[in-house]
Amino acid sequence: MADHYETLGVERDATQEDIKKAYRRLARQLHPDVNPSEDASEQFKSVTHAYEVLSDPEAREKYDLGGSGADFGFSGFGGFGDVFEQFFNAAAGAAGGGGGGRPRSRTERGQDALLRVEVGLDEVLVGTRRDLDVATAVLCETCNGSCCAPDTKPVTCDICGGTGHVQRQMRSLLGTVMTSMPCGTCRGYGTVIPYPCATCGGEGRVRATRTIPVDIPAGVDTGVRVQLPGLGEVGPAGGPNGDLFVEITVAHHDVFSRTGDDLLATLEVSMTDAVLGTQATLQGLDGEIPVEIPAGIQSGAALTIKGRGVAHLRGAGRGDLRIAVQVITPQGLSSKETEFIQQFKSSRHDAAPRFMKFKQGLFARLRERFHGFF
Fold first, then answer.
1. Second label for 272, Cα 20 to 30 Å away, from 94, 95, 176, 367?
2. CA distances (Å), origin 282, targets 62, 323, 326
3. What's the fold here for domain 102-154+193-252?
4. Per-residue pLDDT for 265 more than 80?
5. pTM, to two decimals
6. Do 102-154+193-252 and 257-370 come out as alike in CATH topology?
7. Taking a C-beta distance cutoff of 8 angstroms, is the pair 134, 113 a contact?
8. pLDDT digits (tens, 9 = 90+) for 266-276
9. Ramachandran class of 147: left when φ > 0, alpha when ψ lies in -120 to 50, beta otherwise
10. pLDDT one-digit tens code per residue, 83-128
């Protein structure tokens, strides 16, 4: 059997990059689409065979052991662990029929993918849809996942006979035993691909960007992940897709904040409107909000607008909009305005500033009222 290193024209200490470059150079010269001669076809098979073995670190290590004259025995007492491991693996293979199990499948499930998406508070109020550009692995359109060049197909490995495993004799303290291990030629698949697809390099998939519409449900919050089954990467050899997970981050809003499904906001009210009371129409996240401010309202008072918060993630309905009132004391009064205020004060006979008597639960209510507002 020809030496795989000689076949590729590289040294035995060649790096994986050297091996890949050598294979690509020879493949361009010998590929049947470029060189239709029969000799080139056979050489291409040998080159591909050699590359499949040497490009896999594990298969290459096993090949180096066998190809360098190693007898798979032991020297001194350093190899006992490997000897016993191989012996019991061989025994297990014999108990299962002696073939080392069935060959590996080239088809595997694709990996899951994770995207992080920032959405506005207004978008999660009632839900939204986003079109996301995802760089991922998709099915190769040239080979449709077969990994083979057009009009070709995998062939049975002539080393393991399609079993995906090979058996070797090994001398040990227990005598001569048969060991079963994955075939280094086909890497346990039972077949080799003599003519890999040039588009995907024999992977059955390629990297591409695709646009995926994602429905972001109402009520999601930062850290929530939306699972989209089957929208992740396609697997090797056209295997089933993994899942796509979209992790949500809700952007900061300058006016509104959120606690649970309730929205919080602070409303500045002039002293005169606080004294006399008024009605106002405010712009909310989902349209106009009529607000009635009762006469005599105090700073720190809370107004509640039912059903104008965030939609419940599970279940029907929405939270509330809770508004903290802050009365604004006028500044920079004119002399006439100051005189008017003085007259108003004289007519009221209000008490002088003083500490209030402690009331159980007052500070707790204030903390709750102002939590998240400032």
1. 367
2. 75, 11, 15
3. HSP40/DNAj peptide-binding domain (2.60.260)
4. yes
5. 0.59
6. yes
7. yes
8. 999 999 999 99
9. left
10. 333 334 433 333 333 345 688 899 999 999 999 999 999 999 888 9
